[in-house]
Amino acid sequence: MWPHTFSLAALLILVCVHVACSAEHSNSRPELLVVTVATKENDGFRQFKRSTEKYGLDLKVFGMGIEWRGGTMETIGGGHKVNLLKENLEAYKNKDNLLIMFVDSYDLIFTDGKDAILDKFAKFDSRVVFAAEDTIWPDKSLEKKYPQVKENEKRFLNSGGFIGYAREIYEMVSYQALGDQEDDQLYYTQIFLNRALRHEWKMKLDTRAEIFQNLNFALGEVVIKYKGSYSYLYNIRTGTSPIAVHGNGPVKPEFYRISNYLADGWTTSTGCQTCNDDLLDLTDVKDADMPTVVIAMFVEMATPFLREFFDRVTKLDYPKDKIDIYLHYSVDYHSKDVKKFLEDIEGLYPSTRVISPSDNVGEQMARNWAIEECIKKNCQYLLTLESVAQITNPTLLRDLIIQNRSIIAPLLKRPGKLWSNFWGALNRDGYYARSEDYMDIVEYTKVGLWNVPFVASVLLIQGQRLPLLRDAYTNNPDLDADMSFCEKARQEVLFMYVSNRKYWGHLVYADGFDTSHLHNELFDIFNNRLDWESRYIHENYSTSLQEDVKIEMPCPDVYWFPIVSDTFCDEFVAELENYGQWSGGKNEDPRLAGGYENVPTVDIHMNQVGLEKQWLHFLGEFVRPLQEKVFTGYFHDPPNAIMNFIVRYRPDEQPLLRPHHDASTYTINIALNRPGIDFQGGGCRFVRYNCSITAPKKGWMFMHPGRLTHYHEGLRTTEGTRYIMISFVDP
Ligand SMILES: *[C@@H]1O[C@H](CO)[C@@H](O)[C@H](O)[C@H]1NC(C)=O
Ligand SMILES: *[C@@H]1O[C@H](CO)[C@@H](O)[C@H](O)[C@H]1NC(C)=O
Ligand SMILES: *[C@@H]1O[C@H](CO)[C@@H](O)[C@H](O)[C@H]1NC(C)=O
To answer: Which of 536, 538, 539 best tests ligand 2's pocket when mutated (most atoms within 8 Å of CB)?
Structure first.
């Protein structure tokens, strides 16, 4: 075969030399100018523009800054677009070798550049090619006038994109007078359906989505594909890879979701490639030059762990004199927490504005006012925070600011759950729908910045965008405040990003939070385990579980562990004192199954205060692992305990407890206050070993076998009150 191939190649070279192939070729290859009409520079436009820059496309924008007179894009209108083209394209009408490509811009993205466009256009053998779609709009009666197409092809003209030679394009847009309010799509449709004009201008429709892909009614036919660091859209119905992807009609959220990936935004092999675009650099900015921020907090329902919420706001790594505080709370329940917070921050921030329940200001109004407050203060950023958002990573504010997006939220979710602060998609009524990539994002399988239709709980909004968002929270009074806000942002084509590039915190579960107790969080171990743990478990708890750590053993087979925090001890004692129904320390005890207690104490059982379930859970989650470490080979999961009670020793009440065995496999005993300070005396003596623990440590637990070996007594408390918490585990 060699000689044959060789001769073919030689022939080609010959031909090329003869007609000056390469030079000729580049002469005949047209130039390409992309044009669009945009009156506002919103985020949709910026995304569009970025894609033209990425692919090196020449772009001319007409109408920027003028008042749009073409109606809303959702209804008939758009004649203004045609008129702006007419006005601006005249200058190009005599350029023979120039292709003009018109596209919409707020909802369109390019996925490739000039060469690909020219190649595809050349195949049409046409002077003007229009985008096409499956539905006819706005005049359905014109359907029968349309040429037939093959089954997998699109039959009807869409005016969101067309490409053609400058002369024909100009003739087309100036063919007839058109009112600004009249419909551009109808205008072009009538031209296309006019057989004479169609032939004269060699007009065709892009029925196979070679160049233009309209997504309305077509989401099911496209998939995102990757090739190394490249991403593109593939149409499985037509087998093409369209270049101008248009989120026409009501599919904007889906379009923006797809746009997260297109133009190589995110690919499987490289992850997010646009995440570091436009990054602000704050590294060398002095505190005094940092941007100003209004932090607006909203406490609209009784929220567990609000103290921690406030605390974490004050811990944000950001100069406080650049932050103004705004707080709206609408539940009296939190008055004390708010008061404490205000005391804590006194003098730390330049200004603090609090709107309390007595001001009778609803959530929506309070949120609108926060926007006004920020505008009035000429702030550079507004950070809105709902009370359910626990920001555990203090770099949050800086991280979000440097991302330089109009609106950005950190991904927050309920720990271990799929419930988060964003929606990947909307259903027809504008409420939650799960997007294809929702799971990947909440589970951090895909990491990046995600343009989504709804975010809540924590939002950083650029001050310069706020004037567009005035009254956003009441924009649609039929919706919740945050839904109304997001709808407004979508209307203004301001993108809302959720970022999962880092872990910044989580959401607490506040629904149905029971506030009937003194310290309600004590009861909240099931719904908010993470926060419960961080408030109530001793900070060195997990040290005991490390492999090489030796556990203290103050008496034979009596082990000692840090287990609960000071806060736990204080709130727990206060809660039980608040309940107040201490037993009389008599042998007769109606709370017990047999009605008789051999070694009675002055106590309160957990089931009396509604803490039994929580306590058993605590035993299983926190005590059992310690037991398994020191008494190896004994497994009982979950541990069982019928007797869980707090004991009170006082000189004038019950000062001590005579020697006894416990009805347990093992017993735990947690010291809830401090010897030598809160009380004198006290302690526990193990008779068999003549070994006493007289200096129990608050928040520490000791654990010992129950029957047989560890006969023990409670030593006399001589002053003050001593509290301990006891469980007889696995009786
Ligand atoms: C921040 O984003 C805007 C677009 O919204 C862009 O014009 C600007 O250049 C960006 N800043 C930096 C430092 O990249
Ligand atoms: C935890 O352990 C560290 C190191 O031993 C100690 O400094 C700290 O005080 C302990 N925390 C508490 C609450 O006891
Ligand atoms: C028990 O210990 C105490 C002090 O540690 C000691 O004074 C006492 O004599 C011991 N009793 C017995 C019976 O060994």
So the answer is: 539
Contacts of 288 (CB under 8 A, 6+ apart): 319
What are residue 246's DSSP bridge partners?
Answer: 108, 214
For residue 53 and ligand 1, the question of a CB distance below 6 A is answered with no
Closest by CA to 152, choosing from 236, 242, 247, is: 236
9 Cα to the center of ligand 1, angstroms: 51
d(CA 183, CA 689): 97
Question: Does ligand 1 come within 6 angstroms of the Cβ of 276?
Answer: no
694-706: average pLDDT: 93
Q: Is the pLDDT of residue 442 over 90?
A: yes
Q: Is the peptide bond before 638 cis (omega within 30 degrees of 0)?
A: yes
Tell me if 289 CB under 6 Å of ligand 1.
Answer: no
**Residues 338, 327: contact at Cβ < 8 Å?**
yes
Q: 538 alpha carbon to ligand 2 midpoint, in Å?
A: 9
542 lines ligand 2 (CB under 6 A): no
* Alpha helices (H) in 20-97, listed in sequence order: 21-28, 43-54, 79-89
Residue of 540, 570, 698 with the most ligand 2 atoms within 8 Å of its CB, for mutation: 540
- Displacement of CA 440 from its chain's centroid (Å): 12
* pLDDT single digits (tens) 354-410: 999 999 999 999 999 999 999 999 999 999 999 999 999 999 999 999 999 999 999
Cis peptide before 138 (omega within 30 of 0): yes
Q: What is the chain's Cα-based Rg?
A: 36
Q: Which of 127, 367, 648, 722 is catalytic?
A: 722
Encoded tokens for 66: 């003028």
Q: Is the CB of 404 under 6 A from ligand 1?
A: yes
With a 6 Å cutoff on the Cβ, whether 12 touches ligand 1 is: no
Residue 281 has a CB neighbour count (10 Å cut-off) of 7
Type of residue at 252 = K
Strand partners, 703: 559, 668
Q: List domains and CATH numbers for the chain.
A: 8-272 (3.90.550.10), 292-507 (3.90.550.10), 534-729 (2.60.120.620)
Query: Which two tokens mark 178?
Result: 């058109």
- Catalytic, 722? Answer yes
Tell me, in angstroms, the distance from the centre of ligand 1 to residue 291's CA. Answer: 15
Does 22 have pLDDT greater than 80? no
Helix (H, G, I), strand (E, B) or coil at 427: coil
Residue 8: band (very low, low, confident or very high) from pLDDT cuts 50, 70, 90 = very low
